[in-house]
Amino acid sequence: MRNTLPALRQDRVWSQQRLADELGVSRQTIISIERGRFDPSLPLAFRIARLFETSIETVFEPDDAD
Questions:
Q1: Confidence (pTM)
Q2: What is the reported pLDDT for 64?
């Protein structure tokens, strides 16, 4: 799954640790999501989208999307 999390985070000038703190997860979780090694749970994906005031589809897109 591709994601725009690094760009969204950088637009707010937030560190990975700041984003992790805002979401209540570890920095390692943020790193893994940003690098595409970990797909977040649906509740976490909703929290991320809500935090950035956007839709889940804006943040996450399946690799096989046409």
A1: 0.89
A2: 74
